[in-house]
Amino acid sequence: MWQFFFKDYYGIMLVQLPVMVINSSYGMFIRGEGKPQYFMQVNILNVLLNIFLDYLFVRWFGWGVKGIALASLLAGAVTLVCILYFFLKKSSVYKLGRFEFSRMVCKDTLLNGSSEFIGEISLSISMFAYNFVILRNIGIEGVTAFTIVGYIAFIFSMVTIGFGQGASSLISFTYGAGERGLTKELRRITNIMVLAAGAAVMLFVLGGSEWYGSLFVKNDTVVQMVRSGAGIYAFSFLFSGINVINSFYFTSIGRAMESAVISSSRGLVLLLIFIFILPPFLGMTGVWLVAPLTEVLTLFLGLFFIRKADSGA
Q1: What is the DSSP letter of 93?
Q2: d(Cα 302, Cα 245) in Å, to the nearest integer?
């Protein structure tokens, strides 16, 4: 049965995904125009329209997963129309023009975007590794506890990515204009903001981990794992946001190598090393230690790259 659901859903979503990529890409240019509010309003419209169409197509038309996919496609199409309208009528810096293929631009784009690609693909690999190691060394209760804490980590990751996407176009614009002092200031302000957000999330986790864990399960063992381990894992929030912003920063100024090293270190290389070394010796405590140790070492690596970049090396 699930094969039919998969076919019905992704048969439509394969059309929607390119629309989503175009919308996201054009959104960077809207931010570069100094109109982030417009793009935010368009995204809010996208979400609300998607919710309404989901309800309409599934609840009233009975279209099931096809209706859900179609709702995403139509909401994305409306968003695309709003974005195109902006560039046709309201933009002052960026304009739509005739397409001309440039091998050099394509090469630079692929290289510069490699860090974000590594970050996305490493997420899947690291989650597989986490589940494999936890199941092998702790069991299903360990996976449940890690998943519960992982919800907070995922939400915080989306927040930091939002900061990074919002700042990256401004950083790229000022860097290209030769305003290096302003570029550094934008990086500094964004890092302060994600550090403050990380501290707030860390305090929430430290103070409310037992209550938070009990929202999902009534298993005392799992709740105890969440309470004891979340306090260790929480320290990663202080550093992960800065690492994300540093990766976005190097992408924005066209230094793909540094960005890729930061992304691969925190999302793949260091993470996998610690995943396979710590839990077999330290059990669930080793699982909780993986993220903080990975983020701290990545932070030192990022600061080293920033010092070189700021000194003109």
Answers
A1: S
A2: 10
CB 27 within 8 A of CB 83: yes
Q: How far apart are the first and last CA of the chain?
A: 58
Q: CA-CA distance, 310 to 271, in Å (whole number)?
A: 28
Amino acid identity, position 149: V
Q: Token digits for 269?
A: 């290389």
Measure the CA–CA gap between 176 and 173, rounded to whole angstroms: 5
* Nearest partner of 277 among 265, 267, 287, judged by Cα: 287
* Tokens 């974005």 -> residue: 83
The stretch 57-86 carries a mean pLDDT of 91
d(CA 228, CA 207): 12
The whole-number pLDDT of residue 56 equals 93
Tell me how far apart the 2 most distant CA atoms of the chain are, in Å. 63
Distances (CA, A) of 148 to 95, 217, 223, 230: 45, 9, 10, 10
Quick check: 28 and 87 in contact, CB under 8 A? no
Nearest to 270 by CA among 288, 244, 256, 290: 290
On whether the CB atoms of residues 240 and 295 are closer than 8 A, the answer is: yes
**Which long-range CB contacts under 8 A does 99-102 form with residues at least 24 apart?**
none
The residues, any chain, with a CB within 8 Å of residue 50's CB and separated by 6 or more, are 71, 72, 75
How would you class 35 by CB atoms within 10 Å of its CB: exposed for 0-12, middle for 13-18, buried for 19 or more?
middle
Other beta carbons within 10 angstroms of residue 206's beta carbon come to: 12
Q: What confidence tens digit (pLDDT) does each residue in 146-176 have?
A: 888 888 888 898 889 889 888 888 898 899 8
